[in-house]
Amino acid sequence: MVPHRPMEEDRNETFVVMFVLLGLSDKKEVQLMLFPIFLVIYLVTLIWNLGLIILIRMDSQLHTPMYFFLSFLSFIDMCYSSSATPRMLSDFLKEEKVISFITCATQYFVGSWMAHAECCLLATMAYDRYVAIGRPLQYSAVMSPSLCQKMVAWTYGTGFLGSIIQTVSCFHLYYCGPNTIPNFFCDITHIISLSCSNPFISQMILFMESIFVGFSSFLVILLSYAFIAASILKISSVKGSAKAFNTCASHLAVVTIFYGTGFSVYLHRSSSHNEKQDKVLSVFYVVLIPMLNPLIYSLRNKEIKEALKRVIKRATHLPH
Q1: In sequence order, what are the residues at sequence separation of 6 or more whose Cβ sits closer than 8 angstroms to the Cβ of residue 173?
Q2: pLDDT tens-digit readout, 227-281
Q3: 5, 131, 231, 247, 293 from 234: Cα distances, Å
Q4: pTM over 0.70
Q5: CB-CB contact of 53 with 71 (8 Å)
Q6: Nearest to 206, CA basis, from 197, 218, 193
Q7: What per-residue confidence (pLDDT) applies to 124?
Q8: Cross-referenced SUPFAM superfamilies, in alphabetical order (predicted)?
């Protein structure tokens, strides 16, 4: 046991307290060019998601389970983007892109919480679409307000628990250097690779969490759409089938982009290590998807457009 004490003393002296984020580029002119682009993307993300939440709250005709879940999806996207984008924007204007150990852990915790919650919420929304199409006469009874609230609480609770487990398992490891993260945010796969201690348990926890939350949610979505497809095939009229499919089109597009990009990120990392491709995929996953989700749900949605017209009409006819 005698050699163990010097090791602990050495650890305390060399413990990493800061990480260095390499960002998207090391060229100052490129960083200054990217700053306004990502600032606009972030502002659009905030405005569009917040606008969608307010619209759903203001218009009584949108007080249905589908739009109830959509408002929480918009909130998740706002928080998810805000966990990394503001830091990236500020780093574009800095010479040294350093982040403290605690701040890095906090950033990862929030981002992971929102990512876990989005997986669960997309599964919940898929189940909602199945009930709406497969059991339309029982829809109001099954998808009661109390059940919807419990489902949302479950998605946030599951995300919180999963994120806590991952964050603690990763950041309790011993870090003695190097401390350079080849990305614009605190990505757990890069952080674990910097550990000076054995990361096997943390890697297993990360893998099990991905299976438990990510894959199980994806399985629920697949099963829901299998039942939805079976229900649509039973509809005799072409018009009825098209209408039923249109109610799922936006959600299906969001799921495809979210999981398609997510699988691309992690399959790419497991097969090769190209930092530039990592960064491009990360930008799409962390920055662009939170902006695309509300656009997908809004631009081709007649109910959203009609609700917006009603709200504008009420606002313009208010007595002065």
Answers
A1: 192, 195, 196, 197, 199, 202
A2: 999 998 888 778 878 887 888 889 999 999 999 887 777 666 655 557 777 888 8
A3: 72, 15, 5, 16, 30
A4: yes
A5: yes
A6: 193
A7: 97
A8: Family A G protein-coupled receptor-like
Identify whether the C-beta of residue 206 lies closer than 8 Å to the C-beta of residue 169: yes
CA-nearest of 80, 254, 75 to 152 is 75
Tokens of 180: 């350079």
Q: What are phi and psi of 17, to 5 degrees?
A: -110, -10
Residues in the chain: 320
pLDDT value at residue 267: 66
Phi/psi for 19 (5° steps) reads -115, 150
Which residues share a beta bridge with 20? 98, 180
Task: Give the Å distances, CA to CA, from 225 to 217, 254, 259.
Answer: 12, 14, 15
Structure tokens that stand for 63 in this block: 């007080």
Strand partners, 19: 99
Domain ranges across the chain: 14-316
- In the three-class reduction of DSSP (H, G, I as helix; E, B as strand; rest coil), residue 179 is classed as coil
Domain 14-316 listed as CATH 1.20.1330.10: no
Phi, psi of 18, deg, nearest 5: -140, 145
Please state the rounded mean pLDDT for residues 80-88: 96
